[in-house]
Design a protein that fits this description.
Alpha-Beta Plaits, 13 helices, 8-stranded antiparallel β-sheet, alpha+beta, Uridine Diphospho-n-acetylenolpyruvylglucosamine Reductase, domain 3
Length: 393
């Protein structure tokens, strides 16, 4: 199914007789726990409204992300939440779409300063699992359901409805970017430096630590600042005199390339193993890495958001999945399996098991917006959809 309009999308979902896998541009691995029809959103494409002065953009959910970024660049603007390009990491092809980015709430290194994708949403239009067209936000400031549907759709992964249109706030692109680099620190020392940098008043827009061997022989601890030339120069000097003492610095394309690698997790591209995205308190990141090392499961790590988000490359084993999620749960965080073999994905749920109260609330939301259970069924499953890893099929 490839609807070319909202009316066709409504008809497709009203007439659906079984499970539907919602697919944007196909740049991320699909979890396919059940046989299903594929609904592609690429036909719902095109920029409907762009007002640079008002910093507002409205586009169809199937609009290629590259098309939107090129249009914004012409006016010196950008998507400040810095969405990743996932194809290298995932080993996929296709074209990233705006709807896919919003459905997964894809947010890059700049989230520490600018916020997540959902924070830039002004409005959404979508068709739910019952074939109902829903509009929320933008010109329609309140919905009678009482739900904040704009925020709710970001990160719903297509399980509540299929996005047809998205309204976004965009921001100006600063003329200067500078990255301060410290080499050779271990994870704990790197995270401590990053947290110190974030605690300054110097408007840091990126903080990341990459293990040795991921971007050269030494580990890299990175702190980014952006803005007008004079402001960047002042903040650079202040950071070098304090939280970033001993750092080198790079600017322009050399700086941008470092952050594309962090954003897109390209150091893990082509490497064997399961890729996990883990969210914990930044100061808990070293504790998690130490626990994995003690269990002889530690793999390469990228600590983004000062350690608040970790990208981990682990072996595809039951022991690794259980140990990681046990440690993460103890820290009050969550671990999402982002890339793995098909067999491993069949036995390990994508998302961290939810607390009972949260799970009940999630089920009620899905029952409200997808009463027939059609949309990406099994994606949010709390238990394996196939045999558990390590068990016979």
């Amino acid at each position: 199914m490839r609807p070319e309009s909202e009316s066709q999308l409504v008809e497709a979902l009203r007439d659906a007789g079984g499970p539907v896998e919602v697919r944007g541009g196909g740049t991320r691995l699909a979890w396919r726990p059940v046989a299903s029809d594929v609904l592609e959103t690429g036909g719902l494409s095109g920029v409907r409204l762009y007002e640079p002065g008002a910093q507002t953009l409205v586009a169809g959910a199937g609009t290629p992300l590259a098309e939107i970024e090129a249009l914004l660049a012409e006016k010196g603007q950008r998507l400040a939440f810095e969405p990743m390009e996932a194809r290298a990491l995932m080993g996929t092809s296709g074209t990233a779409t705006l709807g896919g980015v919003i459905a997964a709430n894809v947010s890059g290194p700049r989230r520490v300063q600018a916020g997540a994708a959902r924070d830039f949403l002004l409005g959404v239009r979508f068709v739910d699992g019952a074939g109902r067209l829903v509009s929320n936000g933008g010109r329609v400031m309140k919905n009678v359901t009482g739900y904040d549907l704009v925020k709710m759709m970001a990160g719903s992964w297509g399980t509540l409805g299929v996005l047809s249109e998205v309204s976004l706030k965009v921001l100006a692109k600063p003329p200067v970017e500078c990255t301060l680099i410290l080499r050779g620190l271990d994870g704990a020392a790197g995270v401590a430096r990053l947290c110190a940098a974030m605690g300054t008043p110097y408007d840091v827009t990126g903080t990341a630590h990459l293990d040795a061997g991921l971007a050269g022989e030494d580990s890299l601890t990175l702190v980014r600042i952006e803005g007008l030339p004079g402001s960047v120069a002042h903040r650079r000097r202040a950071l070098l005199e304090g939280a970033c003492a001993g750092c080198d610095s790079v600017e322009g394309e050399e700086s941008a390339a470092l952050w594309r690698a962090v954003r897109d997790v390209t150091p893990f591209a082509g490497r064997t193993g399961a890729v996990w995205q883990v969210s914990v308190k930044p100061t808990d990141a070293p504790r998690l890495l130490t626990a994995l090392e003690a269990a002889n499961l530690r793999g390469p790590a990228i600590c983004d958001w000062s350690g608040g988000r970790l990208w981990l490359l682990l072996e595809e084993s039951a022991a690794a999945a259980v140990a990681l999620r046990t440690e993460v749960a103890a820290l009050g965080g969550h671990a999402t399996l982002m890339r793995a073999s098909e067999d491993y994905r069949a036995g390990v749920p994508m998302f961290q098991p939810q607390a009972p109260g949260v799970a009940r609330l999630a089920e009620r939301l899905r029952a409200t917006f997808d009463p027939r259970g059609l949309l990406n069924p099994g994606l949010m499953a709390q238990t394996p959809v196939g045999p558990s890893v390590g068990e016979p099929a």
